[in-house]
Amino acid sequence: MASSSPDVTQDFVRSIVREDLSNNKNGGKVITRFPPEPNGYLHIGHAKSAQLNFGLAAEYGGRCHLRFDDTNPDKESVEYAESIIRDLRWLGWDWGDYLFYASDYFDQLHDYAVQLIKAGKAYVDDLSADEVRDYRGTLTQAGRESPYRHRPIEENLQLFEGMRAGEYEEGSRVLRAKIDMSSGNINMRDPVLYRIMKTSHHRTGDKWCIYPMYDFAHGQSDSLESVTHSICTMEYEDHRPLYDWFLDELGIYHSQQIEFARLNLSNTVLSKRRLLSLVETGDVSGWDDPRMPTLAGMRRRGYTPEAIRSFCERIGVAKRVTTVDIAHLEHCVREDLNERAQRAMAVLRPLKVIIDNYPEGQTEDLEAVNNPEDEGMGTRRVPFSRMLYVERDDFREHPPRNFYRLAPGSEVRLRYGYFITCTSVVKDPATGEITELHCTYDPATKGGHAPDGRRVRGTIHWVSAGHALPATVRLYDHLFTVEKPDEMGADFRDALNSKSLETLRGCQVEPSLASAELGAIYQFERLGYYCVDAVDSKPDALVFNRAVSLRDTWARIERSQESG
Ligand code: ATP
Ligand code: MG
Asked: What φ, ψ does residue 365 adopt, rounded to 5°?
């Protein structure tokens, strides 16, 4: 497993761990955990957290547990748990035998609850959920004690046993900790420990009809697993005193909680609740829609685990919450794919070109480099013939200044091929639309160089019309048009980008792509990086997803010309 050396990666979490190691705290052990709730697919924020937890363990010779915090059967499922395992493995993380579920501890957690009741530190409350909320008070107002707070221990034990046995309706009773209703920290105002839920659980079936709250399960699960450093996001800072209270009252091992800032990504939402709502409303095709910030979506789009890990590494770990520009992630993807992706030629919006002086019926194979960044990837043969397709956008009948591509009378280089000169333009008489170009080629320029030393400024890509394969290509843009859709509250869907998916049918790709494997990633020369869609692509109906575009200097020149 690739991991950065501790000398290179410096952040406050690693400083704490190093300090603990040098003081021989925890007997020199580092045990972390990644604790997802199986109520959705993992997203790029989870990748950051996984990288911190698994990465730390690897760097300091420790181990990282995968623990599912599965305390809410209403929202959780086996499908989600399986997707989480798949995505973590895909990222390259390994937990060995250390796979746990909070539900493994339900018996123990129940016993802890009984222990607190017996110590007079927990009570059964008959207030309704609304009343509990109302009695809790606000940030500026102390809470009020429930009329049931001073029940005798015996009665609490009996009622809690009745809750467990299924004698009461959902919502009729809860078990609460008895801490401090006037605490400045609302989490300490007698939080709920157990609620009645007559729902079967994806692992424990119908054994339980009461389930522990996340807050009552999390810290104790860490303790039971002897987790040394329990790393979580800043929202849990205010929960730490509560977790400490539980561990102290129960007299069990204390993991050290360390909070860091969660990742926010521009033009993206990273709340599972919101991602689920996009899936449920059909705004995206599923959790693995290539526009989703989920790992499943990114994989389908053509992002690699290496690119994602490199991104997580570079953004670093801090306490201050910031929004990272999604362009930064795209940059990491581009950089990784540049080294890895085989080159190919594809024409997304084809315009027919006839080379009038090339013999009819003749075909020749031209040699093309598979990856200029990596000679070891070799070369391939690309067929050339009299009829080609070029990109519609690479031709201008009335070219602006500095347009070095194809135009009447101008000469350009065909990538890996010949110099061609456009001699005439054919238009649809009814619409005026250009339907084909006629060109001549210079047979002496094979391989892209003229023996007389004359130069051309433009090189364009092409495919041979008689050999190319039809394909569908999907272009993706950011899912949201605003930088921080998360700050829009419930209206965040108003900021969905209606142009986040553009589907181009009738594209033409070079014939070597007939053997492209599902999920394979190519650089379409001059266009960007494209991945064979693992779900929809078929050998006779290829579908490609654009992972990222190339930074297109042409587009920049055109923009400056249009504006100037
Ligand atoms: P929700 O979005 O529903 O609040 P969650 O983000 O808390 O869910 P979990 O399954 O509990 O989801 O997360 C697993 C781990 O990933 C937790 O340790 C959590 O702190 C961390 N995590 C979740 N989102 C981010 C994020 N955006 N940046 C960094 N870490 C995150
Ligand atoms: Mg959570």
From this structure: -95, 125
Average pLDDT over the chain reads 95
Cβ–ligand 1 contact at 48 (below 6 Å): yes
| Residues with active-site annotation | 37, 262, 272
3: confidence class by pLDDT, cuts 50, 70, 90: very low
Q: Do domains 272-343+471-563 and 346-461 have the same CATH topology?
A: yes
Whole-model pTM over 0.90: yes
Does 557 have pLDDT greater than 50? no
Q: What is the pLDDT of residues 346-371, one digit of tens each?
A: 999 999 999 999 999 999 999 999 99
Q: Please tell me if the CB atom of residue 277 comes closer than 6 angstroms to any atom of ligand 1.
A: no
| Distance in angstroms (rounded) separating the CA atoms of residues 371 and 355 | 28
Residue nearest to atom 26 of ligand 1 (CA): 45
Tell me how far apart the alpha carbons of residues 531 and 519 are, in angstroms, rounded to a whole number. 6
Q: Which two tokens mark 365?
A: 């194979």
Nearest CA to ligand 1 atom 18: 232
- 217 pocket-lining for ligand 1 (C-beta < 6 Å): no
The DSSP code for 551 is P
- Domain 8-262 class? alpha beta
Q: Which CATH architecture has domain 346-461?
A: Beta Barrel (2.40)
Amino acid sitting at position 49 = S
